[in-house]
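[audit] Reproducing an earlier prediction to check determinism. Same input, same settings, fresh worker. If the tokens differ from the archived copy the diff job will pick it up downstream; this log only records the rerun itself.
[audit] input (188 residues):
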Amino acid sequence: MDDPWRTFQRAEEKFFLECDTGNVPVVVIFTKFEALRPIAYGKIKKELKASSAEERSKRIAQGVEQEFTDTGVLDRLSDPKNRARPKSHVRLENMNRSDTNCNILLEHTTLALDNEELQLCLISTQKSNLELCIKCAVGTLVDRSQESLFQYQLDQYDIVKWFPHLNVRQRLIQPDDVLVMVLTDGKY
């Protein structure tokens, strides 16, 4: 993305136009997204002189979004002529830094998978990503609520399976004899 006039290389265009990915989901990754900041800043720097730092940052971010929109790259990706259509796209910045967080890429990849077993497999490798585990568990609940299939014990299992790093224990809680699943970190 460091050259807004060269958003696709010929090989990338060929992939989207000619390759049928079948059931394999495609997630498009835009790297070097921060390279659009100087372009956006250059277009509005005179307007920003009297602005606060917070306002400048907000306006530059809006300018980056506009620059990205003006490239038309998302329109080209959703073109009906494309055989490979992305399920999602991710914008990554500062990938050259060692402290860069790629959780957004992991989240989009997980949610692009149509198969719950594949999602669980990917989640199981991400023990430290509690936020993603919670999003998938909540997504399960939302899907269940739309299906009107609320089964208390089954729903508990469908939620806790997204937390593979926690042990699940079933306990009978008195006085109403309700079976409840309890999550522990394995120490108790």
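[audit] rerun output stored. Observation attached for the diff report: The beta strands are 27-30, 88-91, 167-173, 178-184.
[audit] end
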